[in-house]
Amino acid sequence: MKIIIIGSVASGTSVAAKARRNTESAEITLYDKDTDVSYAVCGIPYAIGGEISSFDELTPRDARWFKKRYNVDIHTSHEVLSIDHSKKTLKVKNLLTGTIINDSYDMLVFATGASYYKPEIFQGKSFDNVFQVRNIISGKDIKSFVDNKKPKSAIVVGAGFIGLEVSEQLKNLGIDVTIIQRSKHPMGHLDWDMSIRIEDELEKQNISFLSEEVIIETNGDQTLESVVTSKGHTLRADLYILATGVRPNTLLAESIGVKLGETGAIATDTTMETNINGVYAVGDVAESFQLITGKAIYRPLASTANKMGRIAGDAMTGGPLRFQGILGTGILRFFNLTIAQTGLTEKEAIKEGYETAVLFNIKPDKPDYMHGEEMVIKAIADKVSHRILGVQIIGPQGVDKRIDVFAAAITLGVTSEDLFHMDLAYAPPFATTKDPIAYTGMALTNALTTSPLITPHELMKLQKNRADITIVDTRVKSSYEKGHVPNAINIPLAELREKSSILDKDKLTVVYCNKGVTGNASQNILRNEGFREVYNLSGGNKNYQEIAKRRNNGRN
Asked: Rhodanese domain: which residues (predicted)?
């Protein structure tokens, strides 16, 4: 059996390694038009900034290593020009010599990855100070430009993973950074009431963020001197980074009749086989499916690419591995924040038709006396099944540990009740006695059963519609006077039992504290006093004011 793999980064090399582990009889060959193999794409921004001392650390293995370790032949700087699947042959060009060779296969794997999208205004143009983070070579080019040209200012187009990571690294090098983003908020796949917290960090780091704005004009010949945006801003910078997303490289696969899925990436079955027998697709060129909904999604991540490659290499050599879908779990460090997400966002869950319970849980990652710092956890659960559907977390520390537990929990289909019963590790240097994960389970369970929550958005909607509601601030007077929800009356928790008689029990009532805990205690008192409908404001006044600030600035 002869296996040919087109592409040799994360997924392609994973196919080869797993196939070889299963059989010694297969002949395995990889072709890649790039010069490096199995490199850590996600580490490139950190090598640009010098946090990683050398790009060599991102390329620990080469073709000779794979030949010696796995008896796999990898040919870099070789581009597959065409494929004749009826004869199972392909034409390959050596990009260094220009020589064209023919090869044949029994099984074919497309690991052709994705191309970095270039905004239309830049297509067909070449500037010596405009770059994309594509591969090791492009990373070295950016690093060389920074080291030799000493740019003082940079414009980064795009505020996704790469855009924010590169912005952080350039800022750390002392370069003034401006980010231009097509959508309203950074990390647009998050719910906006979470991504606004990234904007706070942008302001703190003195990075200019221009939202709902695109470049419509470029000025300059060999060097890009300035750009004009859709809002009429003329901007100048020494360095420009385009981080505007990727598109799957499907043309070669389409040329032999491989079908694409609804996302525009290659559709496969759970073995990663395409509609053509013996032809597979893995990594950033392949479509995934959402583990919760079962629907197709395109979420190009290195972790998924490695997983797909291993599954394909196993399945094509008779193994039992099958792709089970993904949650789209992702994580990012941006200066003092860690930003993470898994499963469905609130907007995605609503679009899928779920009736959701939404919790904003603001808790430290460990006790104050161990220098704990607050995380904001937004958790979404299904009101019918109580299953956890998705979680987003933003905070300075402890986020990575929690998002991985949530990802495991969602994968296993746990409910909010299950979260409380998880036996999680506790010691003061690592967690609080009631870990934020357990507390999320407790609070969501209360919300789904006896003690419903109301989000800041929902409360603002009621206020806008002049609903007849009672809003009670249960904090101490001094906290109330520093800032409170509009039209709220102040009855501290210690006085609530005595003064509850002055309130209308039949009127919809919303109680809140600073972050939610005392609000829940107040909610229980009023429920026990016979109040008909009492809601606790999710995330308390702190969360309400953060969201109101951005809404009032027109940034929702």
From this structure: 465-553
Q: Look at 424 and 64; give whichever has higher pLDDT.
A: 424
In the chain, which segments carry CATH 3.40.250.10?
453-552
Tens digit of each residue's pLDDT (9 = 90 or more) over 479-493: 999 999 999 999 999
**What's residue 552's pLDDT?**
67
Coil/strand/helix, residue 192: helix
> Active-site residue 513, yes or no?
no
Tell me the pLDDT tens digit for each residue of 415-457: 999 999 999 999 999 999 999 999 999 999 999 999 999 999 9
User: Which CATH number is 453-552's, of 3.40.50.300, 3.40.250.10, 3.40.1180.10, 2.40.160.40?
Assistant: 3.40.250.10
What is the third-level CATH fold of 330-449?
FAD/NAD(P)-binding domain (3.50.50)
What is the model's pLDDT at position 532? 95
Q: What pLDDT was estimated at residue 248?
A: 96
Within 10 Å of residue 464's Cβ, how many Cβ atoms? Answer: 8
What number is the average pLDDT over the span 236-252?
A: 96
CB-based burial of residue 131 (10 Å sphere; 0-12 exposed, 13-18 middle, 19+ buried)?
Answer: buried
Backbone φ, ψ for residue 264 (5° rounding): 95, -5
* pLDDT above 60 (res 554): no
State in words which class domain 120-244 has: alpha beta
Contacts of 550 (CB under 8 A, 6+ apart): 192, 196, 199, 556
Q: How far is CA 172 from the centre of its chain?
A: 22
The confidence score (pLDDT) of residue 59 equals: 83
- Centroid of chain to Cα 525: 40
Choice among 42, 173, 424, 462 that is catalytic: 42
Nearest to 480 by CA among 463, 495, 465: 495
d(CA 308, CA 37): 17
Q: Is 171 helix (H, G, I), strand (E, B) or coil?
A: helix
